[in-house]
Amino acid sequence: MPYSSFDRVFDRITVNPQQMNGQPCIRGMRLTVRRVVEAVSVYEDRAELFREFPEIDEADVKQALEFAAANLEDRVIDVRMA
């Protein structure tokens, strides 16, 4: 089933408690959003990324990144030096 966060529906992100320990996955596959985000950071060349992960496409990558950003906690940390 698609996942929604706030007003955004993530139609390529699925969450199934009986798959991958309930971690958000790409289109019901055993490929987690976390793994896709990690892969984007490792493969600078998208063509290489898609050769390594032929089951995903650009829309999957885009939505995985949007999902990760939408689920990060916005928090301001004061790092001023005293």
What features would you describe in this structure?
This protein is of the alpha+beta class. The chain has one domain (2-70): Winged helix-like DNA-binding domain superfamily/Winged helix DNA-binding domain (Arc Repressor Mutant, subunit A), CATH 1.10.10. The chain is built from three helices and three strands, in the order E-E-E-H-H-H. The chain has helices at 33-42, 46-52, 58-70; strands spanning 2-5, 8-14, 25-26. A three-stranded antiparallel sheet has the order 1-2-3. Helix 1 (33-42) crosses helix 3. The longest helix has 13 residues, at 58-70. The radius of gyration is 15 Å and the shape is globular. The N and C termini lie far apart (50 Å).
In short:
The protein has helices at residues 33-42, 46-52, 58-70, and strands at 2-5, 8-14, 25-26. The chain has 82 residues and is an alpha+beta fold.
